[in-house]
């Protein structure tokens, strides 16, 4: 495959065949090499460039790896006029995302209590099916959540105004319960406030490095401060929405499916009923994911109050980002302002300072970007960078990115050894199963520091602070 370096950390795959635009790979040499080794990631980013209405280039970020049709770590922006929406460009876990909470505590305050912390959080935040989380919901509540997301949580007394202000889109998109399949709703009823399996986690972290004092101060982060990172999405509900709409698209557009370089790219033209129903359902699932992360936030506030006596309002939301979503945004393309539908799959919005969609408190600093690493390495807080609008439709990476398949990781690691090693490094892990620990071993992920270096060097998301895990629960 022809691929050329056009600037430092910027590679381009020129247009060929049915590609409507070139493909762009933002990576360092070693990270590009990882994508090459994996095989189809670059093929996928090229396939995405065939999407109707796609603008500028199909993008893959430094954490990019193989996904369903579209790579994880990919951005595809299409024209609202003449473009198409593709579930594969959003992902099965609709509005999977990350939030970070700051606590008034320092590392010294929690040191020695990790075991209690992990146990209490594990009790309050269920991982799997059926048990129900911190917020009990019935079928009608689910409709309210699908329609209003964080606003429903506020009305019900599970969130503050400040929580809403610190979510991307205020924690609500125009979702429509009527567009969400009944089976999806059923799956959602007992899942509000539950973590989900495998890669999802709730992690207590210690801020170890601050790179940008002014921005860290604006975000309320300080060295040695304790923060909590929550990574979860829309659970079975979102998965069911994605699955049922893929099936509907395949049914309604059989000729299209046959003509695609990969049937997993299936899409519907914006404006068609199928496309608009999916969009309203997807927004509903996004609202569900916000409510889910918010319910876990309430559980964290309670656990910290019980264990450390901290007031619940002193555990504040720094920010909440979506990394599996498509949204309408205005971007400049060839000197023209255009309304685009920006698909971000395993990609984080990273709007720069001054952008009107950055909350007022952070307007001069840029939007916080929350970038997890692994349970044994660093995670980062970045700030949306000056060049993100020009290079990546206001986006950057969403994590370190997977390096080894789950199967391979289970062969290479054992849970007992890993947990013991991590304990020696001051990290307490509690997981539903040993297999999860092995699958999520730090070695199963790429080098997060390298991913962040690329983002920072390109100026799409710049370094603010870095954290280390202290306690981690996963599904
Ligand atoms: P994804 O949304 O693609 O499943 O995962 C996002 C990112 O989370 C991964 O690329 C990985 O870097 C990171 N990650 C996975 N497990 C953990 C964990 O237990 N702790 C932290 N801090 N990051 C993790
Ligand atoms: Mn997810
Ligand atoms: Mn995710």
UniProtKB/TrEMBL annotation:
Its cofactor is Mn(2+). The active site is at residue 398. Binds 2 manganese ions per subunit. Keywords: GTP-binding, Ligase, Manganese, Metal-binding, Nucleotide-binding. GO terms for molecular function: GTP binding; metal ion binding; RNA ligase (GTP) activity. It comes from the Archaea. One of its GO terms (biological process) is tRNA splicing, via endonucleolytic cleavage and ligation. Pfam families: RtcB. Mn(2+) 1 binds at residues 93, 200. It catalyses: a 3'-end 2',3'-cyclophospho-ribonucleotide-RNA + a 5'-end dephospho-ribonucleoside-RNA + GTP + H2O = a ribonucleotidyl-ribonucleotide-RNA + GMP + diphosphate + H(+); a 3'-end 3'-phospho-ribonucleotide-RNA + a 5'-end dephospho-ribonucleoside-RNA + GTP = a ribonucleotidyl-ribonucleotide-RNA + GMP + diphosphate. Its EC number is 6.5.1.-. The keyword Ligase applies. It is an enzyme of class 6 (ligase). PROSITE patterns: UPF0027. The keyword Ligase applies. GMP binds at residues 199-203, 323-324, 372-375, 379, 398-401, 474. Essential for tRNA splicing and maturation. Acts by directly joining spliced tRNA halves to mature-sized tRNAs. Joins RNA with 2',3'-cyclic-phosphate or 3'-phosphate ends to RNA with 5'-hydroxy ends. Monomer. Belongs to the RtcB family. This is tRNA-splicing ligase RtcB. It comes from Halomarina halobia. The gene is rtcB.
